[in-house]
């Protein structure tokens, strides 16, 4: 009986061992067979900017790759929002169909949201081309398209062919001219939109004076409409060639800076502007601010204003020339929207002129977006003379009431209505219109007076 019991125990342990081994073996097999997590496409590298142009009749093959490169499913869905403007194949081949605008979206097949959206504008082919004479300094670069003009004005010039007669003086690559040494050469520029237009010009390269030091004034403030506004900076020596510096903006969605240190605003906010020595040995930076409530409507910006009473107007030189319609002596200036910040910029000024300055008047109409009106029929009794015979009419914005209350202490407030009621109290036919030089906000009356004195 003992023998049988021993045999039974041995047999039982043996069977348990086999079962355990089999279980462990299955468990190990299961672990080894576990599938890796799928890698999804989260971005796309593509040889197109987020906004670009093509001419009517042009096609474009996008060159692209997915990120991460080892994404599990790399299939992309390409789509045009307006196929009357352009179509796109599933390998990124864009064909223009007509003038206008469309969005090209690129969506991974595994998701519902596009990881890349491109704004495409299809413009006319050029019918004529011209190019200005160009002057540069050694070691500097410029974008050739900025010196090229075409007709129609919105014609295609984003891409150009260019040949240089003396490549030791300047070189050309990917739309950029680079000055190599002092001297003079000619370049031949040709369109690539199918129009096959050609023109030539002279490029003169001057000897550059190196920048030994640069200081940029901190916390400079700009308006959202500011375009090509010069930064406040100081060079040593004072005749140094500023274009030899490398200028950078840390956020070009807020503001960009060109080779001369000129700012163009794009959105409200703050951004650092850097100036870097060509060899990288020195770098300075300063923070600038694109502020709500700062108004600086001057120069070409004045073209944003519309008019009432069938009046017409156009920017001529440094002013907007407004012409009354027959039988009229009033043409209101319609800006549309604006921000006012009476705590930071409490003084609003407008410079204008006409034949008889004593007869020119302005009223200001404003309305808080979604709120109440303010400044209605406020005759401008505050006047300052200017050196050129015009007048500056100004107002204390902190005194304007909206529904019985001022805007003090509220910070920037969006105005859905911002209109100057403007006219001349003279017999019809005497005054033909008026000139508008600028509309600006100021931090104080002293700042306004200083600006007038320094014009």
On the 0 to 100 scale, the average pLDDT is: 89
State the shape: globular
- Which percent range describes the beta-strand content? 35-45%
Annotation, overall tally of beta strands:
39
Going by helix content, strand content and strand pairing, the class is mainly beta
Unreliable runs: 1-34
N- and C-termini, Cα separation: 123 Å
The percentage helix is under 10%
Largest sheet: 7 strands, antiparallel
Radius of gyration computed on alpha carbons: 33 Å
Number of helical runs? 2
Can you tell me about this structure?
With 455 residues, the chain is mainly beta. Helices cover 9% and strands 45% of the residues. Strand 24 and strand 25 (262-265) form a beta hairpin. The longest helix has 31 residues, at 2-32. Residues 1-34 have low confidence and may be disordered.
Please name the defining characteristics of this protein:
single chain, mainly beta, 39 strands, 9% helix, globular
């Amino acid at each position: 009986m003992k023998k049988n019991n021993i045999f039974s125990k041995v047999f039982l342990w043996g069977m348990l061992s086999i079962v355990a081994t089999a279980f462990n073996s299955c468990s190990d097999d299961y672990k080894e067979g576990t599938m890796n997590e799928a890698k999804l496409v989260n971005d796309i590298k593509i040889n197109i900017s987020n906004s670009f142009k093509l001419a009517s009749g042009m096609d474009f093959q996008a060159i692209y790759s997915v990120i991460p490169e080892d994404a599990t499913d790399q299939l992309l869905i390409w789509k045009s929002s307006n196929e009357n403007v352009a179509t796109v194949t599933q390998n990124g081949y864009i064909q223009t169909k007509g003038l206008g605008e469309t969005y090209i979206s690129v969506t991974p097949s595994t998701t519902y949201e596009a990881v890349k959206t491109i704004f495409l504008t299809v413009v006319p082919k050029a019918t004529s081309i011209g190019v200005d004479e160009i002057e540069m300094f050694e070691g500097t670069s410029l974008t050739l398209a900025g010196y090229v003009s075409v007709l129609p004005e919105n014609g295609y010039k984003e891409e150009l062919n260019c040949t240089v007669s003396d490549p030791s003086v300047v070189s050309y690559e990917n739309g950029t001219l680079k000055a190599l040494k002092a001297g003079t050469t000619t370049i031949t520029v040709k369109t690539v939109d199918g129009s096959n237009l050609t023109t030539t010009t002279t490029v003169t390269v001057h000897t550059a004076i190196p920048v030994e030091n640069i200081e940029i004034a901190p916390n400079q403030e700009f308006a959202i409409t500011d375009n090509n506004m010069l930064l406040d900076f100081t060079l040593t020596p004072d005749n140094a060639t500023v274009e030899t510096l490398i200028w950078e903006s840390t956020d070009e969605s807020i503001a960009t800076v060109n080779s001369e240190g000129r700012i163009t605003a794009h959105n409200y906010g703050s951004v650092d502007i850097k100036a870097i020595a060509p060899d990288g040995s020195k770098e300075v930076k300063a923070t600038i601010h694109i502020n709500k409530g700062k108004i600086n409507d001057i120069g070409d910006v004045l073209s944003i204003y519309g008019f009432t009473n069938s009046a017409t107007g156009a920017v001529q030189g440094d002013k907007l020339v407004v012409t009354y319609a027959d039988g009229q002596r009033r043409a209101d200036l319609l800006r549309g929207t604006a921000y006012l910040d009476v705590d930071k910029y409490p003084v609003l000024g407008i410079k204008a002129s006409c034949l008889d300055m004593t007869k020119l008047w302005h009223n200001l109409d404003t309305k808080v977006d979604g709120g109440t009106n303010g400044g209605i029929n406020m005759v401008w009794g505050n006047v300052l003379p200017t050196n050129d015979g015009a007048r500056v009419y100004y107002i204390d914005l902190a005194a304007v009431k909206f529904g019985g209350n001022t805007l003090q202490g509220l910070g920037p407030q969006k105005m859905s209505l911002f209109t100057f009621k403007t006219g001349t109290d003279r017999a019809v036919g005497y005054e033909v219109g008026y000139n508008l030089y600028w509309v600006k906000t100021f931090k104080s009356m002293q700042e306004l007076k200083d600006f007038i004195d320094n014009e």
